[in-house]
Amino acid sequence: IYEKEKLFERAADLADYFRDSVMELRELDAVTDIRGYGLIAGFDLAVKGAPGARGFAAQKRLFEAGLHIKFTGDAGIIAPPLVSEKKHIDEMCGIFKEILRDI
Asked: Which of 42, 48, 49, 103 is nearest to 76 (CA)?
């Protein structure tokens, strides 16, 4: 199935676009660090209140907005599926910007 759908090739073609889009989240005050490789990126949120409280609030609000992100404390990981397209990356980053601007 991988060969038929060329998932790995599609992911490789999308990686630069994904990384550039995610790196734009650096403009948000809540984000203190972003790193990534391929179609996976990790980011840290500035501590606000108790450690992990901002990450928990972000995870809950992002999920309610339709985006499931894995958080451990104030560190999150985003990894879109290999079938993603540019429009999906745009949607994910749009949700991120909207929610993290208010966290």
From this structure: 42
Q: What is the DSSP string of 6-56?
A: THHHHHHHHHHHHHHHHHGGGGSTTEEEEEEETTEEEEEEPP-SSTTHHHH
Of all residues in the chain, the percent with pLDDT exceeding 90 is: 85
CA–CA gap between residue 51 and residue 9 (Å, rounded): 39
C-beta of residue 54 within 8 angstroms of C-beta of residue 103: yes
Whole-number CA gyration radius for the chain: 14
* pLDDT of 1: 53
With tokens 């404390």, the residue in question is 73
Query: What does pTM read for this prediction?
Result: 0.87
Listed residue (97, 28, 26) closest to 67, CA to CA: 97
Contact 77, 69 (CB under 8 A): yes
